[in-house]
UniProtKB/TrEMBL annotation:
This is ABC transporter domain-containing protein. The lineage of its organism: Bacteria, Thermotogati, Deinococcota, Deinococci, Deinococcales. GO terms for molecular function: ATP binding; ATP hydrolysis activity. It comes from the Bacteria. The keyword ATP-binding applies. It comes from Deinococcus radiopugnans.
Amino acid sequence: MIALDVQNVSVAYGGGRLALRQATLQVGGGSVCGLVGMNGSGKSTLFKTVMGFLPPLRGTVQVFEQPIIRAQKAGLIAYVPQSEDVDWNFPVSVREVVMMGRQGQMGWLRRPGAADHKLVEESLERVGMSAFAGRQIGELSGGQRKRAFLARALAQEGRLLLLDEPFGGVDVGTSEAIIALMGELRREGRSMLVSTHDLGTLETFCDEVALIADRTVLLYGPTDEVLTAENLAATFGGRSPLHAASTAKLEARP
């Protein structure tokens, strides 16, 4: 089954300016797809559209063959935002942040039960944040903050995880832990769309890659077929040091 199916989607902000143009991509069930492109290329717009924050002007988005609204109500989607999209001064503990991931599964009174508390603690332990559960979210380091929101996504139990720049502002140890966690989730049958600038590690965790430039998806497919020097040049125009380093690495492959 296809986890995420985006077909010819266009999105416009106020004033009619297109923020996404006829974008098409698919993420297979139980696979990890990397979304790669420069700042302003349309990555965040695509994420917001899949989350249902922005309605498509044209085209369709389905998650496990369900329209977005139905997929959201069914709890099929979990989201890890970019750090800059979070108000770190908001007075809330790490445990409370993770519990927010359970709200969609609670009853109409929105009171967590024993099963919710159990899953929150398990999610915290899985990302190595149990010892920080009582801390205010604003007191954490960049890597700890990212782990906290990963725990929230785990608590949501979504079958499709959207990770927006999960490696941004974290240390090497946290990056390795995130990659290891993604591998575990994939083996459990979860599907992931991962926006990243870290081209050097894509081959270590991605089954598929989608390249996005000028507000549209240029191409997507198996990682080893998409990540070529020619395709990266079309995506980055040779303007990114990351592109240059990655191109050298790709050209050195046997």
